[in-house]
Write a structure and sequence with these properties.
Elements (H helix, E strand, L loop, with lengths): L2 E6 L4 E6 L8 E6 L16 E6 L10 E7 L10 E7 L8 E6 L4 E5 L17 E2 L4 E7 L8 E6 L4 E5 L11 E4 L4 E7 L8 E6 L5 E5 L11 E3 L6 E7 L8 E6 L4 E7 L5 E8 L4 E7 L8 E6 L4 E5 L11 E4 L4 E7 L8 E6 L4 E6 L5 E7 L5 E7 L8 E6 L4 E6 L18 H11 L23 H10 L12
């Protein structure tokens, strides 16, 4: 994200004013380099600083409607085996596009958003973008710091990680290939050495298992990896977050063979130290990280495949994890994902069952989940991507079936697709103004989710700036032309 900076509090506070809004409900990673200097020349610490946060999603009633079903095959008789999805604005038009990772065709296939608020997509770009045999684990990041989204993806059969830099038009440049360990199964991006650029970690599940860390030179060029023990056998799932709250991102490593979830805290110099290890209630496949119980500590969700269940493991903010709390899923869960689907300020939970369907659980705010609904899979629910595909502020879903090779786009029906239209009648009128007036006197919009629809500048507060934007959008008795009540 690029933008302008301003300073306050005797230059002790710096604020980034982004050139464009963040997407609703997305995870944002902040990275500060150890090269930053104060006005007096004093340096930031050698380790730099990093943290992550979630942007708010607007309230939604979670009435999901299918608006599109796109094939990932060029030839319907040739499988692509779609097994991973990335939501990012690949062409800079302000709408999130969908990049699908494919195992059999060993490539990325990019579906560009039509950008008309319909939540629909064009067929994938051709030619596609090679990324290695049986490509699967994937993450986005800006590896060369040009403001454009890039991708890293591990190829399980090739024992490689591919880095593909984005052009900004939806296409990717030819990949850089990094030889890692045997059978890479998990991948994460973080600034491991404090220099302000994103490095890549991956798990290697083959043999006894290990973890690789590959450092970035700042231009998106990566050196040879270094390897270290991940604390179990068959290191598999992987995520990065600040688990001990020292402003250095750490690694959470799921060991499938030993059925452990291990936390290794970052030292800020490209190395990691074992902090804790806890039984994760099964053979982990994928994990997700987020604060699910509102205590501001990162918690862990794991999809425990062979056991037909998933688990939540609460974090203590010190690098430790609590006992796994078990939840039933559909058969053979592979993927587990968080997103605030109802816009109430806490993270809901989606689990994808390869031998079953997609199951959604809602959060009560204290990290206790209740089954909400099931989305039927054509053949195999392999993963989901929660993202705002129509720019209405609530989180929609892309559901990926790796046997049918389709992406199913499910549009979430929120309070309104238009900020300011609080009663969703396709008018911004005096009724909305009355409700907005109540929100002007209420706590910040992020503390009062019902007011989010009136937070028209997305600063988590309903104030006079929003009132001005409301006045500009006022339609009175006239319907918003592109709105369907």
């Amino acid at each position: 994200m690029q933008g302008a900076f301003s300073f306050a509090d005797d230059d002790r506070t710096v604020t980034l004013h982004p050139d464009k809004p963040f997407s609703h409900g997305e995870t944002v990673m902040v990275v500060l380099s150890h090269d930053i200097r104060g006005a007096d020349g004093s340096p930031l610490r050698d380790e730099g600083c990093s943290w992550t946060f979630w942007t708010n999603a607007r309230p939604a009633v979670m009435n999901f409607v299918e608006v599109g079903r796109m094939t990932t095959r060029t030839n319907q008789n040739e499988t692509s085996r779609s097994y991973g999805g990335l939501a990012c604005d690949a062409n800079g038009d302000g709408f999130l596009d969908m990049t699908i990772v494919n195992e059999d065709t060993a490539d990325l296939r990019v579906f560009l958003n039509k950008g008309d608020r319909s939540g629909t997509f064009h067929p994938f770009l051709q030619p596609t973008f090679p990324c290695g045999n049986r490509a699967s684990p994937n993450e986005t990041g800006d590896f060369n710091r040009d403001g454009l989204p890039d991708v890293c993806v591990a190829a399980i059969n090739d024992d490689t990680v591919s880095v593909l830099l984005g052009n900004g038009d939806g296409a990717f440049r030819p990949r850089q290939v990094i030889n890692v360990g045997s059978t890479p199964r998990g991948i994460a991006v973080l600034d491991a050495d404090g220099d302000g650029d994103l490095d890549i970690a991956n798990t290697n599940a083959g043999g006894a298992g290990s973890v690789s860390i590959t450092l970035n030179d700042g231009t998106g060029v990566f050196g040879a990896p270094s390897f270290f023990e991940g604390g179990g056998t068959n290191e598999w799932s992987l995520g990065a977050a600040d688990m001990n709250e020292d402003l250095i991102l750490d690694l959470v490593i799921g060991a499938r063979g030993s059925q452990l979830m291990n936390v290794m805290t970052g030292n800020g110099d490209g190395t990691f130290t074992a902090a804790s290890s806890r039984a994760c209630d099964g053979r982990t496949w994928m994990l997700a990280l987020g604060d699910v119980n509102g205590d501001r500590h990162f918690d862990v969700a794991t999809a425990n495949s062979s056991e037909n269940r998933s688990a939540i493991m609460p974090g203590d903010g010190l690098g430790g994890l609590g006992a796994a709390v078990r939840y039933t899923t559909d058969a053979f869960p592979l993927a587990t994902d968080f997103g605030d689907l109802d816009g109430d300020g806490d993270l809901d939970w989606i689990n994808s069952g390869y031998a079953g369907d997609w199951w959604v659980h809602t959060n009560n705010g204290a990290g206790v989940f209740t089954f909400f609904r099931e989305f039927d899979a054509p053949r195999a629910a392999s993963c989901s991507v929660p993202f705002d595909m129509d720019n209405d502020g609530d989180l929609d879903l892309a559901l990926i079936d790796e046997e049918e090779d389709v992406v199913i786009f499910m549009k979430n029906s929120g309070t309104s697709p238009f900020p300011g239209d609080g009663n969703a009648d396709c008018r911004i009128d005096l009724a909305d103004w009355a409700a907005m007036s109540d929100c002007l006197a209420a706590p910040g919009a992020c503390a009062s989710p019902g007011c989010l629809i009136y937070d028209m500048d997305d600063d988590c507060d309903v104030d006079l700036a929003d009132a001005g934007k409301f006045a500009n959008a006022f339609t009175g008795e006239d319907e918003i032309p592109t709105c369907n009540p």
